[in-house]
Amino acid sequence: MTLYAGTIVDTPGDPFTGDPDDALAQTGALLVREGVIRARGSVADLRGEYPDEPVTRLDGGLLVPGFVDSHVHFPQIRAIGGLGMPLLDWLEQCALPEESKLADRAYARAVAGEFLDGLLASGTTSALVFGSHFAPAMDELFGAAEQRGLNITSGLVLSDRILRPDLLNSPETALTDSADLILRWHDRGRLRYAVTPRFSLSASDDMLDVCAQLLGKGVWFTSHINENVAEIAQVAGLFPGARNYLDTYRRHGLVTERSVLAHNVHPADAELEVLAEHGASVAHCPTSNCALGSGLFPLRRHVQHGVRVALGSDVGAGAGLFLPKEALQAYFIQQLLGPDGLPLTPAHLLYLATRAGARALGLDDRVGDFAVGKDFDAVWLRPVPGSTLEVNLNHARDTTDALARIFALATPADVADVWIRGVSGRAPR
Ligand SMILES: [Zn+2]
């Protein structure tokens, strides 16, 4: 067992349904045995109760739960920074040529390693990962994630039209390849499978039917929705019988409480109602939405309709894997929306980067906060000595103020250590 002592902060509550300050909690120590949190309390109390346990002091900065990224593309880790294009041009010119390279298994292996090490270095310990169009590349990702102990949900990306031909699969091969991958990887340790049509723009009704058949196996579902106005218009043209974009998925039974749909920047009220009714979640990807000029996310409308929202980095359209940067950008977007925006507090930002993702992924009984019984997945954010963040933390009034300064200023360089089920994921700085 180990007793971790420091400034330990999490959001066991939900700042969107009550007073945000009540959602935040702080403690001085956690007792961890075999990767699981066994007790929580003040240092004095826990040392009194467990006098023989070794103490690991985390002096300076804050210890927060491992971040949960609800939307990120592993094949795009080498394709960040393609600026100046709207979604469909960016896909064609920047993302998809890179994704084609993962047909080469050795290339996919290298990319999977870079991607997962990047998540760890950014303090992300759980993620819903948009996969590759190639099944062997998925074996590489799952295998490498298992080695690192990360909590990864992912799946083969399915498309049978519109994209470049080398990225297309037929509904028949999609079914057999996905079923094989589910057998090999779903519910194996911390790995789970997600059925992943790229978007209904590139997936015919036959392909979406295959997705529905695969969902019968108890796996997850993820895709894109309502990201860009040109994309939405094309989808409407391809599905003349559908009421709206969400309906292209709903008609096939793909909108459930195990569904996470990325973006939803331009939803109709009817779509928000259906998302809420089915308990599906939306992955909000702020830096991606800004980089591609997709639009300003209507968070208030989602919350008003009772739709669960989590945070995604959407690398490679997003500007990096570090979730606090996404949280800050989410805050900026709500400020820019003026009266239509939902002003976010530091408690909202921490919740979005941690527990909101755990809830969207159905993992909140295991991760997302530091409740007793949960896995010890944690990030120690301690500022680089001499940094502006260090100066600001030295002048923070209280923990909430310290959190605000961390969200404003922290970078992956301030990730001093990461734990995955109690095992340090990198050498402490
Ligand atoms: Zn995406």
Quick synopsis:
The protein has 429 residues and is an alpha/beta fold. The protein has helices at residues 20-23, 43-49, 87-100, 105-121, 135-148, 171-185, 205-215, 229-238, 245-250, 269-278, 286-291, 299-305, 323-336, 346-353, 355-360, 388-394, 399-409, and strands at residues 2-10, 25-33, 36-41, 55-65, 67-73, 124-130, 151-155, 157-158, 191-197, 220-225, 259-263, 281-284, 308-311, 378-381, 415-420, 423-424.
Explain what you see.
This protein is α/β, with parallel strands linked by helices. It is 39% helix and 22% strand. The chain contains 17 helices and 16 strands. It has helices at 20-23, 43-49, 87-100, 105-121, 135-148, 171-185, 205-215, 229-238, 245-250, 269-278, 286-291, 299-305, 323-336, 346-353, 355-360, 388-394, 399-409, and strands spanning 2-10, 25-33, 36-41, 55-65, 67-73, 124-130, 151-155, 157-158, 191-197, 220-225, 259-263, 281-284, 308-311, 378-381, 415-420, 423-424. Strands 5, 6, 7, 8, 9, 10, 11, 12 and 13 form a nine-stranded parallel beta sheet that branches. A seven-stranded mixed beta sheet has the order 3-2-1-4-14-15-16. The model has no long low-confidence stretch (mean pLDDT 96). The site of zinc ion has 6 residues, from β5. Zinc ion is lined by residues 71, 73, 130, 224, 262, 314.
Q: How would you summarize the topology of this molecule?
A:
Elements (H helix, E strand, L loop, with lengths): L1 E9 L9 H4 L1 E9 L2 E6 L1 H7 L5 E11 L1 E7 L13 H14 L4 H17 L2 E7 L4 H14 L2 E5 L1 E2 L12 H15 L5 E7 L7 H11 L4 E6 L3 H10 L6 H6 L8 E5 L5 H10 L2 E4 L1 H6 L7 H7 L2 E4 L11 H14 L9 H8 L1 H6 L17 E4 L6 H7 L4 H11 L5 E6 L2 E2 L5
Parallel strand pairs: 1-4, 5-6, 6-7, 7-9, 8-9, 9-10, 10-11, 11-12, 12-13
Antiparallel strand pairs: 1-2, 2-3, 4-14, 14-15, 15-16
The structure holds zinc ion (ZN).
